[in-house]
Design brief:
The chain is an alpha+beta fold and 169 residues long. It has one domain: Mog1/PsbP, alpha/beta/alpha sandwich (Protein Transport Mog1p, Chain A), CATH 3.40.1000.10. Helices cover 30% and strands 41% of the residues. It is built from four helices and ten strands; from the N terminus they run αβββαββαββββαβ. A hairpin with a 2-residue loop joins β6 and β7. The protein is globular and about 40 Å long.
């Protein structure tokens, strides 16, 4: 009985800590406790490129963020391995200090995703990224879980819980 009560309390606490996020019809995930949306100015500062994500949530200091977007590019579901290899080659050319941790295809939310985990060098600190990409309604759905390399061990569990909460209809 005590184990059931403890499990129920943990389940309720986890639900209260997570903040559900929905940005396109049929795609949701739970943001870690305390994460709030970045303003357009914050996004432009953190992602200074034309390909910046439209949606980002982050911790108070903005040292850990989750970017998510639906890009207009179509990626064929039956060619994810080829797309993954193309991304890998591009990243190796353009990402400073890239160190691969994992490069694979995973099953999540009933679909195949390209999964990249890597560290890289930014202007002022090293970064730990976990990136997910999948086809969705003829476009490219992506998530990028991003933290300073120093902070990552402290937020890793919350980020991985958030990643596992991704739901796609």
């Amino acid at each position: 009985m005590r184990a059931l009560i403890v499990a129920a309390v943990i389940s309720i606490a986890a639900t209260l800590c997570a903040k559900p996020v929905s940005f396109v019809d049929g795609v949701t995930f739970d943001a870690p406790e305390g994460f709030t949306p970045l303003s357009a100015d914050e996004i432009a500062l953190k992602y200074p490129s034309a390909r910046a994500p439209h949606f980002v949530v982050g911790n108070k200091r903005r040292t850990t963020t989750i970017a998510y977007d639906l890009k207009p590019e179509s990626i064929p579901a039956d060619k994810l391995d080829e797309v993954r290899q193309s991304f890998e080659q591009t990243f190796q050319r353009i990402v400073p200090g890239l160190v691969w941790i994992e490069r694979k295809t995973v099953d999540l939310s009933g679909r195949k995703w390209i999964y990249f985990e890597m560290t890289s060098s930014a202007v002022d600190t090293d970064i730990h990224n976990i990136m997910l990409v999948t086809p969705f309604e003829g476009k490219m759905l992506l998530f990028n879980f991003n933290s300073t390399k120093e902070e990552f061990p402290k937020v890793e569990e919350a980020l991985r819980r958030s990643l596992q909460s991704i739901s796609v209809r």
